[in-house]
Every structure is written in structure tokens, then in C-alpha cells.
Amino acid sequence: MTAPQIVRYGELIPCRTAFIDAHTPGSDQKENFTIIGGGVSESPDQHVHIKETPGFNIGAAGQPPKCRNSLHSHRTAEVFYVLKGRWRFFWGRWGTAGEVVLQEGDIFNIPTGIFRGFENIGDDYGMIMAILGGEDAGGGVIWAPQVIEDAREHGLVLGENGVLYDTKKGEALPDGVGPMPLLTDRELATYPEPRSDEVVSKYIARYWDMMALADGKPCKVIGADGLIKDRPGFEVDLLRRGSIAETPYTTDRHEVLMVMRGHWIVRWGKEAVVLAPGDTCAVPPGLEHSLAPSMSGEASLYRVMNTDDPAGPTWTR
């Protein structure tokens, strides 16, 4: 019998040089975390807690107030939920096409193929948890041209091989490796600029709405029949106290449990473990286990499971 793998919130190892904007003022205090899978980090310094990918990647971003993540795009799904704080998400070529503010527990399935960024607009250190589609998270990050240019001015150069080089440390592009080319005007014209109402109505679910719908059964959040109707290679449910029976069950899918509120106890065989907010638990296929809150009070978690759907683009104009 294979046991679940657990990554504790308090044991997460941050990387402060994960992406090209690591030296850019306003973005230079970010901390990135790779929990499951290789993620999309451009730095060899990024620590990976669980290397085996269940068909998707799990990561997180921690930022102090007023710190922002620069405009970028992905070819596959990028789903965030707010664990701590208050966050503003914005999108478009210059970040001005639309925006939305998310509170703790809210979830956002950001449409593929648009430039997006986000910033902590709360008063304390904030944390957002991320689910990235695909085994290799879609082949990396596509940066808006101005992000690459700003980074170069502050000593970071992204090679066409997807690796960062820090000129402040005396690093240079290796022989035969050129800088990452900027997107052309023709290529940039293919990136959609959806309005706020187009995105908010289809790609966002609010925490307290989901909690109400999870009374007596899991709330299907992302999936063919979810609140957010998408099939990005995984599905997401929100569970609260009483959403599922406390009897053992099995599934032939990878199951990743990400605790939002309260404490949850996972039992398998003669073993048991208690999960706290921010903890991530990867349950392997075929393992009989049970899941229940361990104390009274508010309790919720996101459950992510792989599907047979391809991890491809989701946005349509």
C-alpha cells in the first residue's frame, strides 16, 4: 500500500529568483513555490517538493502588499485560489483590458492565451495557490515584451532555452544560445483582450457561493458540469463538512487535497494524518482512504483530480 505524500504549508521552500522579473522593482519580493511537478520556473534554484506529476502541477505564489507578478501567458490552464489575503488580477497586452478582485477562497480559472498578472492589494503577506495544466505545465511562460525589456535593464536575461541568466552575478548567455525573442506585433495581435464581464461571468467562482452549494455534496467547481465549465485536464471540487461520507473510498485517479479552512483528517489502513490550511496532500490512485474534518467550525478544501481531457487551450472569443 502506497501512502499519501504531504507537503506542509509551514515547510514550503520558496524561490525568490524563479522568473524573469525577480529583479524588477515592484516584483522583486515575490516568493514562488513548486509543490507538485516541475511547474514553470525558469530558475534552477526552484525547489520541487513532489516531483511526480499527476497530469497537472501544483504551485503557489507568496507576495507582500503591493508586490505584483508581471504580465505573462500560458498555453494550458492556470487556476488560482486565494489562500490568504486580497488580490487583484488584471489582463491584456498592457494589463488594462480587464480586472477583478478576489477574496480568500475565491477561485479563478484564467483563460489560456491572454496576458495576465496579479498583485497583493491586502495589508499583509498574501498567498495564492496554483493548479497548472499538463505534465510540463504547457511548455513554460510567454512574457509580454515589455517584461523582458524591463528585466534586461535590471540584470536578468532570458535565453531562448528558457533559462534565466543574471548579469549582476557575471552570468552570460552560453555560446550558441540567443536571448528569448520578443513577440512580434503580428503575434501580439492574436492575444485576446476580453472585457472584465466576459471573464468574470465564466471563469470565476466565489467562495461563499461554493460553500452553499457544497452542503451535502461536493460542489463541482471546474469540469464539464462545473460552475466553471472547462475541461483543462483536471477537475476541481470544493468540499466542506458533510459534503462526502466519512466512510473509506477509492478512485482510479490521482487525488490532490488542498486545505482552505479548518483541519481535516485523512485515514488509510491503520494510519491517519491531520491536514491544516495551506497543506497539500497527494493521494495515489487505488488507495482506500477516508476524509473528514477533525474539529468543529468552518472546514473546506479543494480537491483536484486528473481527467483524460487534453491540457489544451480553454479561451474562445
TrEMBL record:
Record-annotated AraC-type arabinose-binding/dimerisation domain positions: 250-297
Gene Ontology molecular function terms on file: DNA binding; metal ion binding
Record's keyword terms, sorted: DNA-binding, Metal-binding
Source organism superkingdom: Bacteria
Record domain Cupin type-2: where: 65-129
SUPFAM superfamilies assigned: RmlC-like cupins
InterPro entries: AraC-bd, Cupin_2, GPI/OXD, RmlC-like_jellyroll, RmlC_Cupin_sf
Gene Ontology biological process terms in this record: regulation of DNA-templated transcription
Protein's UniProt name: Cupin
Species the sequence originates in: Roseibium aquae
